[in-house]
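Weekly puzzle thread! Below is a chain. First person to post its structure in token form gets bragging rights.
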Amino acid sequence: MTRTRCPGYAGTVTVFLVLLACSVLIAVPASAVEQHLGSGPDFSATVSGTNEFEPGQDATVSIIVKNTGLNSMKQVMMGTIQPEDQQNTAKTTVIGLNSSGDAVIVKTDPQMVGDIPGGETVTVQFRAKISANATEGEYQLPMTIEYRYLRVIVQERADVFEYTYNNGKKTLPITLRIKPHVKPEVTGLVPEQIVAGSEGYLNLTIKNIGPENGTMAAVRLIRNGQSPIIPATSTVFIGDFPSGGVVTCRYKVSVSKDATNQTYPVDLAVTYTNREGAVVTSQKTTVGVPVYDKPAFTIISPVPAIPRGADTTIEVVYRNEGSVEVRDAQVRLQPHNPITASDNNAFLGDIGPGETATARFVIRADPEAGTGKHSLDSSIRYRDAKGTSIESDTIPVQLDVVPAAGGLSVLPGGIVTVFLVIVLIIAGAGFFLYTRKKSSR
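Winning reply:
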């Protein structure tokens, strides 16, 4: 039996198979390509610059953050373009440094740094306060990095991507080191003549309560802001200042005249050479210094009566109302019309707090002076404990001008003059009577 070939049928089958294969190829893009990616970004951090600080210091910590994540994605099926976002890019990144205990207090809020591609770095800075009571050693502060990263890519068509993101967070330790240091503490304070408007001395006993042994040390006394205590000698060299060591320093200070009777601050700091050979200065220590008011004086004697037209000796009693003794005090009375003085100076000597001294003045009221109260100015010049000459504020002296004795104006010479006038009147009257009697004979 002879087989008959059908070339038309075979060609039809071939064409059908080719079309079926093409339809399968064409249908493939219609199926979505979904890619599940790797672990995403990773980070490392190092401190840029110094990470060593001293207690009490205001520190700025610079940190370099690097994205070390690798890109493990590879597109193998569909795609005419590459996706813009990579799996190892950290997006909308926020970096924060947190305090660890009371030794280091971070003052800067978390910072938004944006996107960090894989292999790239960013530098962030944080302000921190090192506690004055922080001890020597290392402190680890947790740094948190919050970000978003690409997790899944869905490709519906050759030129369209749909991204799915995850939130990520990583915490890294940042190590800061607190260096040993000299820490001065005032354990004793003895003021000498610290009085408003004057100069005096301040004796301080200072102990090194820090762990560092300072060499070539000097203690500086520093004015605190607008405090009225102003150092005249500000630096005392003390040499070696070991941990636990105690020194005594004496400083000359001046006090502004507007100071009142209270305690005012003054600062001190120690400049020294540390164990590494570097010259450093300790944090300031503040101490309160008592200041006394400028000595004030009041008059406690009664108001003296001054007859018109006569020289009168008056006594004025002054009392020291201040807190310190005044030495070699002298008082000066300043008369003015219609009051004059033939002796307006008096020596009072030393006057302690609350003590009194009596001054005597010889003054005269004009015969035509109005009766009643009059006021003269007086001032006391004295020396303080250092020998500085100081003048007090004005002290008013009250006087009561009265008519002359018997209602007559008293002539110069006082009582003696009055007596002579009376004698002359009597003598004149006697002479008149005598001559009249003689003429009548």
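Puzzle host: Confirmed. Bonus trivia for everyone else. The CA atoms of residues 96 and 110 lie 4 Å apart.
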